[in-house]
From TrEMBL:
<dbReference type="GO" id="GO:0051260">
    <property type="term" value="P:protein homooligomerization"/>
</dbReference>
<dbReference type="InterPro" id="IPR003131">
    <property type="entry name" value="T1-type_BTB"/>
</dbReference>
<dbReference type="Pfam" id="PF02214">
    <property type="entry name" value="BTB_2"/>
</dbReference>
<protein>
    <recommendedName>
        <fullName>Potassium channel tetramerisation-type BTB domain-containing protein</fullName>
    </recommendedName>
</protein>
<dbReference type="InterPro" id="IPR011333">
    <property type="entry name" value="SKP1/BTB/POZ_sf"/>
</dbReference>
<feature type="domain" description="Potassium channel tetramerisation-type BTB">
    <location>
        <begin position="30"/>
        <end position="103"/>
    </location>
</feature>
Length: 131
């Protein structure tokens, strides 16, 4: 008996995302993005606004390299890795653009702590800055 009705082509679930700084796109499964519907990348309808059919990729003209940082939220199950190399103002604008929750933004943009990662439960792994 053939199981064609249960066959799932994972290649059709692949999403290619790029920004102006990369020659190769980031490839991620749509179901990984769609788990976080409240964000721009997690909402298929909002994400579609940035689809370029000529190159078959979602293309964002944003701060160079920021997409590598943003994508960690989806790859690490809602934990945003924050090896921050961007000025606070730029990081804030990017997090707002990509639809992050204001609490996540506040926790990350705090000027007195550096966060290794953000866990949605509100528990933070922090390192105090030596000033």
């Amino acid at each position: 008996m053939m199981y064609e009705e249960n066959y799932y082509n994972q290649d059709s679930d692949l999403v290619k995302i790029n920004d102006s700084s990369q020659s190769n796109p980031i490839i991620i499964y749509a179901h990984q993005l769609n788990q976080y519907y409240h964000t721009l990348l997690g909402n298929p309808f909002e994400r579609l606004k940035y689809y370029d059919s000529s190159i078959e990729q979602y293309h964002f003209y944003r701060t160079p390299g920021i997409i590598n940082y943003i994508i960690t939220y989806y790859l690490y199950h809602g934990c945003l890795l924050t090896e921050i190399h961007y000025p606070v103002e730029i990081l804030y604008d990017e997090l707002v653009f990509f639809g992050f929750n204001i609490q996540i933004i506040y926790d990350i943009i705090s000027n007195c702590i550096t966060i290794d990662y953000y866990i949605p439960s509100g528990k933070l792994n922090i390192i105090l800055l030596q000033i």
